[in-house]
Specification:
Length: 782
């Protein structure tokens, strides 16, 4: 009797298992046991019928509250629920799976009534051997796949936003989904703590296929980590796709051609993503080098690691960042294809901006964009933009910032180039302030396939440098320049497409011409030439500086040359003169130079934003103007002096003890102001017996009584010192002098040809001596 009872129980359990009733296996096991008992007592027919009716009734009352609907299809949730409840039995044809990265369409299997109707009639019997064989070959269903505990599901629910599909043991599976699960378990045995997440759909427009993620519950509950195996079921058999992976997201996407799955994983702490599709009943993994992937209305947006973000021109190397750059793909019959794009000009980009004349806020925003795109330089940082239209509903731009301030942000003491991007979605073909926008750092180009070509195109030499191509300079330059370049090429080889900038003159007044030259390559990633700086004189070609991020070679007066470049440790410009037939770098502690309206040289201390020092460079001299303190009442001699003095005192609460007034012999008056928060200065120029404000800033201007060597060897007491800290910095800079500095001694002087207040004539420094040396001269009073 016991043997027959067991046989009947096994028969019932096997029938229910293959009928798609796995989640309720404990309930059916109890029914099978009762059926076995009835079978021994001769009541088999009634017992089986009773259980079948009960199962049908139970399944008809099954709630579908846990099932999800695909929002993108527009299917009404309530309607779908009523349709399922009114149906006598759900069929596998209803399994269309579907999300657009947010949810899945409801999937329904056959009802328990259908499953029970396929059981053998009461009068049919099988041998004990056949029954035992069927029970032995049936795969073991892990416990959590029959019923997920509350604690495990709570841990999964915290991750569920990144996942779609049905969780076995929690969501009701259809017959096809049970078949897929059985196919996997028949190939690999999993323990009782294993969970199964399944996404079933007609991925290839044929049979129901499924992607199944088998993962352990222990890492999930302990560390919030989902790790396991990914399987694919083709409707008949299962195949292992990926083994032992850490999964951070699994999304089924429908409504864009054939359904597909986005898989996001983590490998050695780095994010990876890919798309799994099915074509011709073959499973394919696409876009697998992406870091993350998001579904869009017509395909996907892939985010790749930003391998090129910061470019250092001095070493010609890119630095990556923990950022990503996007590329958009549209769904096609063959998989995915990059979205089309076209290049735009700044004006074409701005034409997308919606700004009615009556909308002041929109107009202000458009003006801000115009200022952004048309501003090429801002505080020693240069900006370059590239614009694109992506498909018909997105516009984008790439930005390059170049300058030392960019380098400082990256912990680099010289100018570098940094790339960033911004992509906006159009609203009915227009860009508004409220448009959806994404942005980030990295070199962006709409096509990943053409990105290398885009990088190479940066190296195309701009038309503005056509005249500076080395081969053209050799053919068209004046004889003196051509000879100097030839001497340089004897020492150092350069390619024909190198750039050459040269200035030739008799800088020391000895009757012989000397040449300063910059020769190097155009660095497209940085956006400027990177050159070596040369001097060619009586001793031949001498290399003065290597690898200089170059802007311009400018002749100042008749005796000086200025190399303008991008900042390195606060130095962007280098001033040179010629002494003893050799090049001499002057005012080394200065980082930037400009000429004022009067032709005087203004020099700023390297690494500071202090007031500049003023130098006379006329008549081959380099002399610093004397600055001496004067009293407040001396401002009253000017027509607007009283108003200027009142405005000055107003800034310090009429406390004259907080101001200092310095007068220079170059018609400049400097006013130092201070309060509890700090100090600042104003510089006024005397014009037509009136005071005109020309400069202001933080810090203070120092008196200049006497100064030493202005050649760059020794410290010079500059009126650009702004604080004790900056003064210390200047001393440190001056301590590092090169071998060739030139003995160009000087004292603080008034403008050439004038006398100081005590009646002594001011010394200047003459670079025109026949022997090439600088000598102190006395000039007659004009």
């Amino acid at each position: 009797m016991k043997r027959k009872q067991v046989t009947a129980a096994c028969l019932m359990a096997a029938t229910m298992l293959f009928s798609g009733c796995t989640p309720n296996i404990s309930e059916y096991a109890a029914r099978a046991q009762q059926a076995g008992k009835s079978f021994w007592e001769g009541e088999t027919t009634d017992a089986m019928a009773q259980d079948s009716d009960a199962a049908a009734t139970a399944d008809d009352e099954t709630s579908v509250a846990g099932e999800t609907q695909n929002v993108s299809t527009g299917t009404d949730t309530a309607a779908a629920t009523n349709e399922w409840q009114d149906s006598a039995a759900a069929t596998d044809d209803e399994i269309q799976g579907g999300t657009t990265a947010t949810g899945g369409e409801a999937q329904h299997g056959d009802t328990a009534a259908t499953a029970d109707s396929e059981m053998p009639a009461a009068g049919e019997t099988q041998t004990d051997t056949a029954t035992e064989s069927a029970a032995a070959t049936a795969p073991q269903i892990p416990a959590l796949m029959t019923e997920v505990t509350d604690s495990v599901y709570e841990a999964y629910a915290q991750k569920s936003d990144a996942f779609t599909g049905k969780l076995a043991g929690h969501d009701r599976l259809s017959r096809a989904e049970n078949a897929a699960l059985t196919a996997v378990l028949s190939q690999k045995e999993y323990g009782d703590k294993t969970l199964c997440l399944q996404n079933m759909a007609k991925y290839d427009s044929n049979a129901n296929e499924s992607f199944l993620l088998m993962f352990e519950s222990t890492p999930l509950t302990a560390r919030g980590r989902i790790s396991g195996d990914l399987w694919y079921y083709d409707g008949e058999s299962a195949r292992l796709l990926e083994k032992g992976i850490v999964v951070t997201g699994l999304q089924q996407v429908t409504g864009i051609g054939n359904p597909f799955v986005i898989l996001e994983t983590e490998v050695s702490g780095k994010k990876q993503a890919a798309v799994w599709t099915v074509k011709d009943q073959k499973c394919e993994k696409l876009l697998e080098d992406a870091e993350t992937i998001e579904a869009t209305k017509d395909g996907v947006c892939t985010f790749y690691p930003a391998e090129k973000t910061v470019y250092d021109p001095l070493v010609s190397e890119w630095d990556s960042a923990e950022e990503t750059v996007p590329v958009y793909y549209e769904r096609t019959a063959d998989g995915f294809a990059e979205r089309s794009y076209r290049e735009l000009t700044a004006s074409e980009y701005l034409a997308y901006v919606s700004a009615e004349d009556s909308d002041e806020e929109a107009q202000a925003w458009k003006e801000k964009l115009e200022e952004q795109f048309y501003t090429q330089t801002d505080e020693n940082t240069e900006y370059t933009y590239w614009f694109y239209a992506i498909g018909e509903d997105k516009i984008a731009y790439r930005c390059r910032e170049a300058g030392q301030s960019v380098g400082q942000e990256e912990g680099i003491d010289h100018a570098v180039a940094k790339y960033s991007w911004c992509i906006s979605s159009l609203d009915q073909g227009k860009l508004t302030k409220a448009s959806e926008t994404i942005s980030g750092d990295g070199f962006f180009f709409p096509s990943r396939l053409e990105q290398e070509e885009a990088l190479e195109s940066l190296e195309d030499i701009p038309n503005e440098f056509t005249k500076n191509r080395l081969n053209k300079v050799q053919k068209t330059a004046r004889a003196a320049v051509g000879q100097a370049v030839a001497q340089i090429l004897e020492v150092q080889e350069y390619p024909d497409d190198a750039l050459c900038f040269a200035e030739t003159a008799d800088y020391d007044g000895n009757g012989k011409k000397e040449t300063f030259a910059a020769i190097g390559r155009y660095d497209g990633a940085f956006g400027a030439p990177v050159c070596d700086l040369w001097f060619v004189g009586a001793d031949g070609a001498v290399l003065e500086e290597e690898n200089f991020a170059f802007k311009e070679l400018e002749k100042l007066g008749s005796a000086f040359v200025l190399y303008r470049g991008y900042e390195v440790s606060g130095v962007s410009d280098m001033l040179f003169g010629v002494q003893e037939q050799g090049a001499v770098r002057l005012l080394k502690q200065m980082g930037h130079f400009e000429l004022d309206d009067d032709g005087d040289l203004m020099a700023w201390t390297a690494g500071t934003e202090a007031a500049p020092g003023y130098y006379d460079i006329s008549l081959r001299t380099l002399t610093e103007y004397r600055l001496e303190e004067i009293r407040e009442k001396e401002l009253l001699q000017y027509k607007n002096g009283k108003a200027v003095l009142k405005s000055i005192l107003r800034q310090v609460g009429s406390d004259s003890g907080k101001i200092q007034i310095l007068s220079g012999e170059n018609d400049r008056i400097h006013v130092n102001l201070s309060d509890a928060e700090g100090s600042w200065y104003e510089t006024w120029k005397v014009e037509n017996d009136r005071l005109v404000l020309t400069d202001s800033g933080e810090g203070s201007v120092k008196e200049v009584h006497e100064s030493g060597d202005v050649s760059g060897q020794n410290a010079v007491s500059q009126n650009s010192a702004v604080s004790e800290r900056e003064a210390d910095s200047i001393s440190e800079n001056n301590a590092a002098a090169s071998d060739r500095t030139g003995s160009i001694g000087t004292k603080s002087v008034t403008k050439s040809g004038q006398k100081s207040e005590n009646g002594t004539e001011s010394p200047a420094f003459d670079f025109s001596a026949p022997d090439g040396t600088a000598k102190e001269t006395q000039t007659e009073q004009e």
